[in-house]
Amino acid sequence: MSQLIQPSEVISGGVARPTPADIRLDKSLISPHIQDAEYRWIVPAIGVTFYDALVADKGNSTAFTSTAYQQLWDSQLKSFCANAVLYEASPYMVMQLGTNGLYTLDNEYGQNVGVEGLKFYQDTLLQRLDVKKKRIKDYLCACATSFTGFVPSAIGCPESTCNEDEEISDIYNTLGIVL
Questions:
Q1: Which label site among 80, 95, 109, 123 has the fewest CB atoms less than 10 Å from its CB?
Q2: Rounded CA gap, 55 and 61, in Å?
Q3: Cα–Cα–Cα angle for 13, 25, 33, rounded to 5 degrees
Q4: φ, ψ at 160 (rounded to 5°)
Q5: Does pTM top 0.90 for this prediction?
Q6: Cα dist. 103→85, 96, 100 in Å?
Q7: What is the pLDDT of residues 63-90, one digit of tens each?
């Protein structure tokens, strides 16, 4: 199965886990939604060519062979992927369709939050995903030369490198200030 994140990575990690999901969350509830989440959120954020390169490098393991890819995964991409998976999976964990129709799940240890609670949860996750998408774009654009297979123009990175000295001289050049 071609995907970046494994179901166990969405919920594991103890205190440092990448999502607000309970560590007892059943992996079978989220695994069917991983590919949809990645194609909806991750591919547009990093570009299809780079996504394919990352999937090829990682395979079915929880670690990359490339140090640069692993650093990207640990610092930015794992959390982005995991939250995208929760966003996509959460409606199916609150409601299910069965022979008795569409119903909300309930258990003896807690009360189901219902559709309104689900909307609030997804809105909160959406805000988090928007921030993570911007952070990963900034990270990738700043470190574009470190990643084999990354096409900066695929996600709208500026054509020039992000060098402060160049940016400052560009400001002076466009303002007509002579030093």
A1: 109
A2: 10
A3: 95
A4: -90, 165
A5: no
A6: 22, 6, 8
A7: 999 999 999 999 999 999 999 999 999 9
